[in-house]
Specification:
Elements lengths: L1 H18 E6 L2 E9 L4 E7 L2 E7 L5 E4 L12 H9 L11 H15 L12 E12 L12 E12 L6 E10 L7 E16 L3 E22 L7 E12 L3 E10 L2 E12 L11 E9 L1
Antiparallel strand pairs: 1-2, 2-3, 3-4, 4-5, 6-7, 6-14, 7-8, 8-9, 9-10, 10-11, 10-12, 12-13, 13-14
């Protein structure tokens, strides 16, 4: 048993060493991952929450791909000059991203070696499952006294494993509760889309829209009883509605453990639904983990 445990420990250590090694570049000691191997190697890692990329030639020389700014704060695209000197491929449309650099370097390696096998893999969809809770004033429903109630729900998010992708789709189910002053409760199923306009290694900020919702609501209306002064009669009404109203919101994810701590300000506005005169309050906090 001890030998077996020792074997797996050594296997784990060696696997990690292959995936990430320590290099000295311009007097800086860095742990870098190897993305592409061939006539040119592509190395990279996230350092101080910034993506940094390097190329290694056959003689072992490592050069960083940089994009510095001049005195006018304009990007100089230094990395294009570096790549142009190392390859015979047009680099004018190459971006300083993992996908773009990987595509260029593998194209270069394939041109020099007919037996070269691309390590590029097609993007795969990853799923994240989460739960959330918060408060809302149901901004798109009549709420004369602007009452706030609790909400809670769960969500399944689909994202690409491509590090450069900023897109995601989601399906969530949320339930809003009621209280004595606002007797409106609803369960909503929503399909939506997110675009991460800030995308970092440990956090991202996104805009989102729900483009299709199915809402089952329960509304209780209370009126005075004309036959008994001081008494009231309650009427319950249940409705189910499908909408394609494009409901917009914003949110953020912060890397935490095997998932993300999430903050969402939902229901800011919708293209074809009024907010009934109340400033939208629809906040939720939750956690989603990678499946």
């Amino acid at each position: 048993m001890k030998k077996t445990i020792l074997f797996f420990c050594l296997l784990t250590i060696s696997t990690f060493a292959i995936a990430q090694q320590t290099y000295t570049v311009a007097n800086e000691t860095l742990e870098l991952k190897t993305e592409v191997e061939g006539d040119l190697d592509l190395l990279w890692n996230t350092i101080n929450e910034q993506y940094r990329y390097f190329v290694r030639t056959k003689d072992g020389k490592i050069t960083e791909l940089k994009n510095t700014k001049d005195a006018n704060n304009k990007y100089q695209e230094d990395y294009k000059t570096t790549l142009s000197n190392l390859t015979s491929i047009d680099v004018s449309k190459v971006n300083l991203t993992t996908y773009s650099l990987k595509t260029l370097i593998e194209k270069h390696n394939s041109a020099l070696d007919s037996n070269y096998v691309s390590s590029a893999a097609r993007s795969k969809i990853k799923l994240r499952l989460g739960a959330f809770g918060g408060i809302t004033n149901s901004p798109f429903n009549l709420n004369p006294n602007n009452q706030k109630v609790l909400l809670f729900g769960t969500e399944l998010e689909a994202v690409s494993d491509n590090l450069d992708s900023r897109h995601a789709g989601f399906l969530n189910v949320r339930h809003t509760t009621d209280n004595d002053e606002f007797q409106f409760s609803a369960t909503q199923f929503a399909l939506g889309y997110r675009y991460r306009f800030i995308s970092k290694a440990k956090f991202n900020v996104y805009a989102q829209t729900k483009f299709a919702t199915l809402t089952a609501a329960n509304i209780t209306t209370t009126i005075p009883d004309p036959n008994t002064p001081g008494s009231f009669i309650a009427f319950e009404n249940s409705t189910t509605d499908f909408d394609a109203a494009l409901i917009f919101g914003i949110g953020a994810d912060i890397k935490l453990g095997n998932g993300y701590l999430t903050f969402v300000y939902d229901s800011l506005f919708a293209l074809s639904v009024d907010n009934q005169g109340n400033f939208p309050v629809d906040f939720a906090i939750g956690y989603k983990f990678n499946l």
